[in-house]
């Protein structure tokens, strides 16, 4: 929060020589340190926030999951392999869900992970134009994941998993508590129905929702990314990214907005005296090698279209109709989301049908949508061209894992998802990979100073005619007699 | 789940005479009852779903909120009035948040509630074209809210509030346990930061997130709507709607999709033998009379625009810029969301500025977006014209509370938010009401049969330069010594 503005040093990494020093910010004071320390040990107490009675998720019989061979997680109707990874952070693979009617374990996803991030800052001036980070490929999303803080990063009932990596010199090392796994009950409802009293039947059935969360938090220099993979017993997988940490700030001579001339562009928001939070975007692109009941799948754009009725056909003039379009090649599956031309996005197994004849599938349910608006010919956008669409589908190719290319530092955009997809290969009834990008536009505000409250977005992978019927219909409700018996700590 | 398809009876409600009986579905069998009973008492056990160890939210020292005069809720830095209502369900009013620096209680929202719902089904045929429900105005969203099921609708630490209403004949009655209020800890993170090891400082600070939830669940005949108002200590209010319950289904002669000719339109999905789940939309429109530090506010569209650089200005060709447009009149604030022309939507107090000179405000953060695609001249869309935009802003007018009009049964669309807003009244620096519509397109799938797992969407009201800095910076982390001491029930 105390930038030395305008001072940049250009270093040749091969010769280790300083090529250029630029110091254009001499008239800009270094902001004061006042109110920037976020450590608890340095705070005055605030009575209102301290007045919340202790509350936690409690599961005194212990977790319901087991982890075999240190990596294979088995919980309720789910099984999946979990691997900490230096570049991707966390890799979830061979995710399978048990069909509770047949007892069979069915494939859902072969492999899923954070493939790349793209974080362009919106200031084209000298000391800022190059700040367009690709955090997985440049820094290692997993390398930047520090040990989680028990009780605060994850609830009390969490299990922790270490990452075991090779350092740059080949020496193995352990990143302890890098990933946590925990069951979660939030008070939310799995399903419910109460019969209306007019039916004369006193029926009210409600099921609580319990899920399994896998979490990692990467601190990529100033910013913190919290990545959750959440598994629900109804077959849904929610992938959520939370942003917290410290904004990247710019020094300014201004102490108050009343000193700024009307037309001047600050490239962000004045957050405190002499501190500007620069506008930026965050894109997090996920690799999702879906395997719906086997590896050969198709991508179906189920378009929701207005249909006008014929004169005299109906008192209605219009209604919505679902039109299924199977993507033949990659370009059919380059998706930019449109509110007024909506679709569902299904990954189906065309060779496998339900009892009544629907193809089994999962859908990608978009959320957290923001699109990159940069010029496609802008150098950072060429490197980050994997954000040109929100959804892409490619045929599986072992060399195509990192959406921004394997070597992103050297990239001019010649090895990105955009380039691969332009080859327009066939994707129907093939082993396909779906790519989804979560996006955030971030115009900073004073509440983000000196450290920002978490902002989250998520998207879902959701069964769609995958099961014959509601897979959690038979789940039990909560009964008082089963719940933990707790007392306050002070009475211990 | 067992429709008698095609049988409709037209009744004159004044004369109580049957005007017309139409029975066009004689060839359509009534679906069998197999697998439609959702009561727990009728289920076979499923080992996998029963294998989850008891888990709950525990707060043995009791809630941290108090409710004064039966309606005034005081929790952490929040105060608001809570009222069960026959039409709106729940009304939250006079919501104020304490500024923890000054100790002052500051206005945020004068009144917020579910103003109207619009649920058009997408089948223009005889027995279905009229199914275009407006659940608040037609049935009473609050009247349809049944008593909540403790432990399952709300966690164990919930407080319940009764609704006291007048029946049609004027006799008062009590709807017990209609609303619940509870504190929630989900394992999520309020804010965090870990310093990178290269700084040499071992700093890791993480704060758990605890929120306060107000919940109601309305069972409008077949469907169940769960409405949550969630208050965060960082000043954010999240308004979430969950959908569960029973689909409205249509009988069909088909038992399998292989019997359907390619071009035939089923108006939905074959869910089970002889049962079609008809495509439909859900729109839930909220009335939000914001009062940011007082009643006179302005609505600002903070447009995020691409700016191209001049030749030679920068190695960058483009960046994004925030352009503030204050809405002068209602038409300036008729907002259809656009992914490729994004904005933030601020409600500010133009007469009050932060220490560094930003106007204090809250922003509406859209989520759960789906737009009505029906023809604007379609009769149901005329009545549901309040869904023609996702956001509207009107000047406060005591007669404009119900987005579809006061008397929706008789409506031809002459008294809707759309009509009011077309008057294009001034809204700058006035007491303004923001209207936000959550939308869902619902193409049913087999997992929704016979009862659907909850699908939720939400939007946020979030402080933006309302506080001088992060208002939860000084919140304490969790310490093991403060947490409850719990044991499994069986050992009691």
Write the layout of secondary structure elements.
The structure is a homodimer of 492-residue chains.
Chain A: E1 7-12, E2 17-23, H1 47-50, E3 56-58, E4 66-68, E5 72-75, E6 78-85, E7 89-98, E8 105-120, E9 132-133, H2 135-139, E10 159-166, E11 172-194, E12 204-220, E13 223-232, E14 237-245, E15 249-251, E16 268-272, E17 275-278, E18 280-290, E19 296-308, E20 318-326, E21 343-353, E22 359-365, H3 379-383, E23 391-395, H4 417-422, E24 430-442, E25 452-464, E26 485-487
Organism (chains A, B): Gossypium lobatum
Modified residues (2',4',5'-topaquinone) (chains A, B): 223
Domain Copper amine oxidase catalytic (chains A, B): 56-472
